Amino acid sequence: MSFYQLEKKQLIPAELDKVWDFISSPENLKKITPRYMGFDMVSENLPDKMYPGMIIRYKVKPLLGIPVTWVTEIIHVIDKKYFVDEQRIGPYSMWHHQHWLEERPGGVMMTDIVSYQPPLGFLGRIANFLFITRQLEGIFAHRELALKSVFPQKPQE
Fold first, then answer.
1. Residue 101 pairs with which residues in a beta bridge?
2. Which of 45, 69, 80, 106 is the 20 to 30 A CA-CA neighbour of 126?
């Protein structure tokens, strides 16, 4: 079984409260997901903030435009510090995504650590080599740009 981990960091030039309010709201997930992923929130009447045990259902089209149901559970939340989501139903054999926030000079350092295992054993390893890693890199590159538009650079004082 192959296991992979991706770590991404981004300095967001904003106050911790504002960054937390944005990333801890399930409704904002679509705003930072590339359109080509065909992201569509299926869960209805979600609260404004995530909480441990929260189940979020959505549809994505990660490969050839084929819709896939993805269900994640928020398993840990420490206000203004981190939250963790895990896949319960979806395209991976295992998906564990940590979202960490840390105040730094000039803003908030957001660190994402995604641990995942593709499905289908040997075929999953090949898929990871051929396109999964590249696709995840593209998703995080898009998200970085999206967050830069939500939190533009602070003017120098």
1. 110
2. 69
The pLDDT tens digits for 50-82 are: 999 999 999 998 777 789 999 999 999 999 999
Q: What is the DSSP string of the chain?
A: ---EEEEEEEEE-S-HHHHHHHHT-GGGTGGGS-GGG--EE---S--SS--TT-EEEEEEEEETTEEEEEEEEEEEEETTTEEEEEEEESSSSEEEEEEEEEEETTEEEEEEEEEEE-SSHHHHHHHIIIIIHHHHHHHHHHHHHHHHHHSPPPPP-
Unique residue bearing structure tokens 């801890």: 24
What's the chain's length in residues?
Answer: 157
Whether this model's pTM surpasses 0.85: yes
| Token pair for 49 | 């903030």
Q: CA–CA separation, 117 vs 39, rounded Å?
A: 21
| CA-CA-CA-CA dihedral for 26, 53, 113, 14, to nearest 10 | 40
